[in-house]
Amino acid sequence: MKMMKKAAFALLLMAGPGLALAQTDADMLTIITSDEEQTQAMALILTMQAQRADVSPQVLLCDDAGELAVASEASDSEVLRGPDASPAQMVRRLVDHGVQVDVCAIFLPNSEYTDTDLIDGVGVAQPPAIGAIVADPAVRLFTF
Q1: Neighbours of 127 (CB within 10 A)
Q2: What values do phi and psi take at 29, rounded to 5?
Q3: Which of the 8 DSSP states describes residue 139?
Q4: What values do phi and psi take at 122, rounded to 5?
Q5: Global pTM value
Q6: pLDDT above 80: residue 72
Q7: pLDDT for 73
Q8: Crossing angle of the two packed helices 87-96 and 37-52, in degrees rounded to 10
Q9: Are 61 and 103 in contact (CB under 8 A)?
Q10: What mean pLDDT do residues 31-57 have?
């Protein structure tokens, strides 16, 4: 019996970090890589609509879409008819409404930017945490 308790404790210790990573409030992950403003805007509009329908979204901005989270680049994002906002403004709106928005972990090291260049409230994704979200069958994934 003592051996089984030790084995169970060892399993718990090994699984503990993985279990912590898998716990997230997000039940929707929007991954945006496109540099096309209409595609970016539609992804963000759908994410905002999902949040209004009581979904807990999270947004991951990679490649060219990562620039939507860079403060100095936000003014270059074109205001589009329909939403009457630019994709960068929509990112700020999501952050202001409590949505976790991150740039991909490899975005900053492969660009001229640092984390201080990101708009307030935007983070840098951690691959193990994003991997856990992607692996969770209860999370809906949308890629644009």
Answers
A1: 12
A2: -125, 120
A3: S
A4: -95, 135
A5: 0.82
A6: yes
A7: 86
A8: 20
A9: yes
A10: 96
For 141, phi then psi, to 5°, come to -110, 135
Q: What is the pLDDT of residue 74?
A: 77
- The arrangement of strands across the sheet holding 140-143 comes to 122-124, 100-103, 57-61, 28-32, 140-143
Q: Which pair of tokens denotes residue 97?
A: 């409404």
d(C-alpha 23, C-alpha 20), whole Å: 5
The residue ranges of DSSP E strands in 35-139, in sequence order, are: 57-61, 100-103, 122-124
Q: How far is C-alpha 105 from the geometric centre of its chain's CA atoms?
A: 11
Dump strand ranges (E) for the chain: 28-32, 57-61, 100-103, 122-124, 140-143
The token duo for 39 is 């595609």
**Beta strand pairing call for 57-61 and 140-143:** unpaired
Chain segment 96-124, per-residue pLDDT in tens: 999 999 999 999 999 999 999 999 999 99
